[in-house]
Design brief:
Helix content: 40-55%
Shape: globular
Number of helices: 26
Number of strands: 17
Structural class: alpha+beta
Largest sheet: 6 strands, mixed
Bound molecules: tungstopterin, iron/sulfur cluster
Radius of gyration: 22 Å
Length: about 625
């Protein structure tokens, strides 16, 4: 098999021993997993002991790209960061735009793996074959904006930087990895894993020409794809509002998370929507290699720049009762500077306010009380006060300390991103079975669902969830490119398949990528099951249930007043999904499925831990 498109090498940095080595990646492994998420989960499966403490030196922090990452082509400036999650204790990853993606490709590696733990705060500098583990005493404690500026002054402003802020340093369980002052990835606490390794930053520069099978055709195809993206009818409005347009859409369709996912409409939604943002916009920025940049920058309540996206604004706006975009933008900027997930933060604050109002927390808190919310946000991000510290441990922990289980809106420990599902069973399923916990990244089925019968629990819906999961959570996460030009502009998938083929010299069709996607999904599920059992917990289908509130507390207002999920029908929907994948009634891959996907070694490991269905 050709290894064009891939370097066939990863850089393994053992922080405990302060050693770096280059490791060849087996060619079959590359074609079986492609890159990014697929490669990351395979490495975690192969090189971590079952049941490790995610914040121990035994965990791996993986930074992975794919065959088309960093090459010419729409939105190929993305990178996957992955580890065993300290928040969920299962597979965790995130995908962020960063010059690191391009630089890692040019440095000559398909991935960098960090093992062990540095004795003292450090940052790693990689330049092609050169690896330095440098002292980070002067960076530790700094917010991500200040620290990144300092690193760029030191290493050149075109260097790629991934780094953590004070939340990652304090191992806040929803700490993320930040880049370019407003890009964030790794909601399941991947920033905490980096902090647990005393690793403040990763700086990468590369100067090599990536191995490409047919560079001329790749360039020509990329140029055409850029033009095609620009000519799409949705392009002008996308350039105006980006993901912020979704606020109005969610409000109109009663899925805008409001008051900690109790309602789907917010009376003050127009104060935080895309049109309000447009009036405040001061600039626009984005990821490398993108000609449909969607990072909308506004000035926040303290006059500082803040880059907005739908999830951030919904979770730090309507979900906690804030209808003033400047205030929301301030919370959003601070979250980026602290290096904490805005979704997790909005959910933790929502939990606290609802629990306070229901008498589970003594402190009095009100929806939309900005000074109080600002203080609580900082308490969580910096682990100040007992309440802040408890919330920094995640919603499962917080509800075990304070009670109010229905205030904890999560799946498998990961807070739900910004779509309320009282009246959206398909989206609820998508959250239920997402690879990392409740994340829309795998299957954003909601827009299809509202136009195809939102109250049905049909096998067709389960099929659609899986189809989207394979494209979004599989194809795009494995080739490692941004999915938004496809989702939002309608740029055809075939462009990416062609780019992949010109990069690698392979002649794959989309179906071939779908097989890899299914393998990736199934290995991720196997990893969750392995870790649960190794930690003494039993996997069962309830793990794939959405938050209890969507079943028990109907909407009290809006056009869909009275709507809620039906538990029995949800369970049937889940069953259809399992059948499609060849997973058993517990949601565990069958032995025959593992064999079909070439995961015989996984069958043998899992088979020693639990009884597998054939
Ligand atoms: C992603 C999740 C999202 S998804 C958003 S906004 W979204 C939130 N962004 C945060 C942020 O910002 N700061 C912060 N401190 N926390 C944040 N938490 C939330 O994290 C982002 C875009 C967006 S904007 C989306 S949908 C798409 N996501 C992609 C993906 O997952 N895969 C892929 N192949 N392409 C994608 N393209 C889009 O990228 P997580 P980014 Mg993010 C500031 O990582 O952990 O998956 O959580 O990457 O570079 O910021 O771009 O309405
Ligand atoms: Fe980044 Fe937005 Fe472009 Fe995607 S569409 S690559 S998120 S700027």
């Amino acid at each position: 098999m050709t290894t064009k498109g891939w370097w066939g090498k990863l850089l393994w940095i053992d922080l405990s021993r302060r050693e770096a080595k280059q490791v060849e990646i087996d060619k079959n492994l590359l074609s079986s997993y492609v890159g990014g998420r697929g490669l990351a989960v395979r490495l975690l499966w192969d090189y971590t002991r079952p049941g490790i403490d995610p914040l121990s030196p035994e965990n791996l922090l993986i930074v992975a790209i794919g065959p088309i990452t960093g090459l010419p082509g729409p939105s190929t400036g993305k990178v996957v960061v992955a580890a065993k999650s300290p928040l969920t204790h299962g597979y965790g990853d995130g995908n962020l735009g960063s010059r690191t993606a391009v630089m890692l490709k040019k440095a000559g590696f398909d991935a960098v793996v960090f093992s062990g733990k540095s004795e003292k705060p450090s940052y790693v500098y990689i330049e092609n074959d050169k690896v330095e583990i440098n002292n980070a005493d002067d960076l530790w404690g700094l917010d991500t904006f200040t620290a990144e500026k300092r690193l760029l002054e030191r290493h050149g402003k075109d260097a790629g930087v991934l780094l953590i802020g004070p939340s990652g340093e304090r191992k806040v369980k929803m700490a993320t990895i930040i880049s370019q002052m407003g890009r964030s990835g790794g909601r399941p606490g991947i920033g905490a894993v980096m902090g647990s390794k005393n690793l403040k930053a990763i700086v990468i520069r590369g100067t090599r020409d990536p191995p490409v099978d047919d560079l001329k055709s790749l360039r020509e195809t990329a140029a055409k794809a850029y033009i095609e993206a620009k000519n799409k009818p949705a392009y002008p409005f996308w350039m105006r509002q980006g993901t912020m347009a979704t606020i109005q859409w969610s409000q109109e369709n009663s899925v805008l998370p409001t008051y900690n996912f109790s309602e789907g409409v917010f009376d003050e939604s127009s104060g935080i929507d895309g049109f309000t943002m447009e009036k405040m916009k001061v600039s626009q920025r984005g990821c490398p290699n993108c000609n449909s940049i969607c990072g909308n920058v506004v000035l926040d309540a303290s006059g500082e720049e803040s880059e907005l996206d739908y999830e951030n604004v919904a979770m730090l706006g309507s979900n906690i009762g804030l209808g003033d975009l400047k205030k929301v933008a301030q919370l959003n900027r601070l979250a980026d500077m602290w290096g904490i997930d805005t979704i997790g933060l909005g959910s933790a604050i929502g939990f606290a306010i609802e629990a306070s109002q229901k008498g589970f927390i003594n402190e009095k808190m009100e929806w939309g009380d900005f000074p109080k919310i600002l203080e609580l946000a900082e308490d969580i991000a910096l682990r100040r006060t007992k309440l802040g510290d408890d919330l920094a441990e995640g919603l499962v922990h917080a509800s075990s300390v304070y009670g109010c289980e229905e205030c904890a809106i999560h799946v498998k420990g990961l807070s739900v991103s910004a779509y309320d599902c009282h009246a959206a069973p398909g989206m609820a399923l998508s959250y239920g079975v997402s690879s990392v916990g409740a994340h829309h990244k795998d299957a954003w089925v909601i827009s299809w669902e509202v136009s195809h019968g939102r109250f049905t629990y049909s096998p067709e819906k389960a099929k659609k969830v899986l189809e989207l999961q394979k494209i979004r959570g599989g194809f795009f996460e494995n080739i490692v490119a941004c999915r938004l030009p496809w989702v939002e502009l309608g740029l055809e998938l075939d462009w990416y398949v062609k780019l992949f083929n010109f990069a690698t010299g392979l002649r794959w069709r989309l179906d071939d990528h779908m097989v890899v996607a299914e393998r990736t999904l199934t290995l991720i599920r196997s990893y969750w099951v392995r870790e649960y059992h190794a930690e003494g917990r039993t996997w069962n289908r309830k793990m794939d249930y959405p938050p209890v509130k969507w079943f028990t507390r109907p909407y009290t207002r809006g056009p869909l007043k009275g709507a809620r999920l039906d538990p029995q029908k949800y369970d049937e929907l889940l069953g259809y999904y399992y059948e499609l994948l060849g997973w058993d009634h517990r949601g565990i891959p069958r032995a025959s499925t593992l064999r079909r996907l070439g995961l015989g070694d996984v069958e043998s490991t899992l088979g020693k831990m639990i009884e597998l269905t054939n």
